[in-house]
Amino acid sequence: xxxxxxxxxxxxxxxxxxxxxxxxxxxxxxxxxxxxxxxxxxxxxxxxxxxxxxxxxxxxxxxxxxxxxxxxxxxxxxxxxxxxxxxxxxxxxxxxxxxxxxxxxxxxxxxxxxxxxxxxxxxxxxxxxxxxxxxxxxxxxxxxxxxxxxxxxxxxxxxxxxxxxxxxxxxxxxxxxxxxxxxxxxxxxxxxxxxxxxxxxxxxxxxxxxxxxxxxxxxxxxxxxxxxxxxxxxxxxxxxxxxxxxxxx
Amino acid sequence: xxxxxxxxxxxxxxxxxxxxxxxxxxxxxxxxxxxxxxxxxxxxxxxxxxxxxxxxxxxxxxxxxxxxxxxxxxxxxxxxxxxxxxxxxxxxxxxxxxxxxxxxxxxxxxxxxxxxxxxxxxxxxxxxxxxxxxxxxxxxxxxxxxxxxxxxxxxxxxxxxxxxxxxxxxxxxxxxxxxxxxxxxxxxxxxxxxxxxxxxxxxxxxxxxxxxxxxxxxxxxxxxxxxxxxxxxxxxxxxxxxxxxxxxxxxxxxxxxxxxxxxxxxxxxxxxxxxxx
Lengths: 249, 277
Ligand SMILES: Nc1ncnc2c1ncn2[C@@H]1O[C@H](COP(=O)(O)OP(=O)(O)O)[C@@H](O)[C@H]1O
Ligand SMILES: [Mg+2]
Known about the structure:
The complex is a heterodimer of chains A (249) and B (277). By secondary structure, chain A is an alpha/beta fold. Chain A is built from 8 helices and 9 strands. Chain A has a 6-stranded mixed sheet, sandwiched between helices. Chain A has a 3-stranded antiparallel sheet with strand order 2-1-4, with helices on one face. The longest helix of chain A has 15 residues, at 157-171. Chain A is globular, with a radius of gyration of 18 Å. Chain B is 87% helix and 0% strand. Chain B has 11 helices and no strands. Chain B is globular and about 70 Å long.
């Protein structure tokens, strides 16, 4: 059963076609990675799927109850403490104070934030800690679906790995589904059940590859081999590292 | 239990730190006042009591005024006018500024008007307001409104136009509609530029109130200054000037500073102890 389904979605900015004829399904409990070169329209597709942007045409079906989003920039409110930031979605949902506190604490524990961190302002936190807070903010609303839009691109390699583990831990019980956007094929191969490759010009999904086993079982060696093979032999991944700076938003 | 105790303790430490900081800035202020008094005294000794009364003599006159209930009603009239005028301009300027910040079209429409408003000297407004309202509260408030409106407007508008749009996106992703986005994200970001503008407008309100009172013969501290001029009573005039300044400082530290330190709490959080002023 799919919780998110896009049918023949297309979009244009100022008359320039960005996406055309996109079909994508995400099943319950599944993480689908969306890869493609920078500027090919991944963020636009995520915004359309999340209902933030109205597509030019196409149909979007969402059967999950609540979603949340994690951005490349943590997008934390600088004037609020970590706790206040995590609380944001709950406050918007109009939840009572006591219940909110409980949810905030639970979400913070999931991303290994300790009570001491909770009273700190974003300016006092490191990049990794800020991204943890952003993930906790997304988890706090108890979403059934999470959109990750290149969440770890700004982090260094070791930290990125830790954050990927975090995502895999969160999704391990199979109740959470997600769309994980990245342009790092290793990251996609680590966290996802399936990998969708978006065409450089946004002309549809070039290919959909199903990974063997669950993300948690996959060994680093298997991931490395898979990526090497994909880059060498799979035509869908041929333009994955193309970058056209002029196309970047 | 121990966590909440710890939280309370750290909270108290934070407040105590802020009080100390406040006292420290008071100490610096005291030093500045002493310096000013010394220069004043030097001027007094050079030019004589008819041009500049000594600081002590002025203090004595202030003492007399403090004991006089009539003086209290004069001061409170000016205080009332300055504060109501300030509230008027704060409300109007913020609303127009925020609206213009969100709507580029009205921004383009309003900006030239603001430029014109800034170009008209306050004295011209005083003349107009006197003709319209005579020597009443309305005259003083009108002059405050038009003199301080540009700065409040620009502060509010800039806060909105320079806001972090990523935060808007984030709020939208969490399901906030335009109004919730404004209340939880936009408004709070405006304070960065709106608040300094409001502090400036408050100072302007006091100065303009006294000036308008003097020229419109509308009583209050300005009226008292006019009387002092007629009587060539320099001590009286200086005493009222000092009282006006004291009123402004009192309002600044009871109204502006507490709000400002609460709003800027996160900025100070990043500074090491030694840098805090
Ligand atoms: N608001 C916008 N207005 C006009 N063009 C945009 C806008 N947002 C993105 N684009 C363009 O759409 C294309 C896809 O952008 P985006 O979805 O951010 O790509 P990606 O996330 O894959 O890097 C880019 O060429 C970008 O310049
Ligand atoms: Mg993007």
